[in-house]
Amino acid sequence: MNKPVTSPAVQKQYDALVGELVKTADVKAGKMFGMPSVFNKGKSVAGLYGDDMVFKLGPVALEKALKLEGSRLFDPAGGRPMKAWAQVPAAHSRRWAELARQALEVSG
Q1: Is the pTM of this model over 0.85?
Q2: Could you list the pLDDT tens digit for every one of the 108 residues in the chain?
Q3: 48 and 32 in contact (C-beta within 8 Å)?
Q4: Engineered SS bond to 103: which of 5, 20, 45, 69, CB 3.0-4.6 Å?
């Protein structure tokens, strides 16, 4: 399965979010499976997949994230969704910082 293309506007939003996270938390930016990702203590906690962000969340935060319109379990391979990962579309980009912080809490 091909990785979806990221629009320049969404890439800019992602870069701004990562820049803020790097300033305020002990995280690093990198890539995992070719996907721009955010790492906390060596573990991936969030990433950019096309125009969506993906977040590794605890059960309560995951349930809330999946209620956002268009959100779903992250399934990059098709047919094997990752049970703790929510894929949240750019329509909810104002929530991305909050979700990233929740992902950092779970990993920390």
Answers
A1: yes
A2: 567 899 999 999 999 999 999 998 889 999 988 899 999 989 999 999 999 999 999 999 999 999 999 999 999 988 999 999 999 999 999 999 999 999 999 886
A3: no
A4: 45
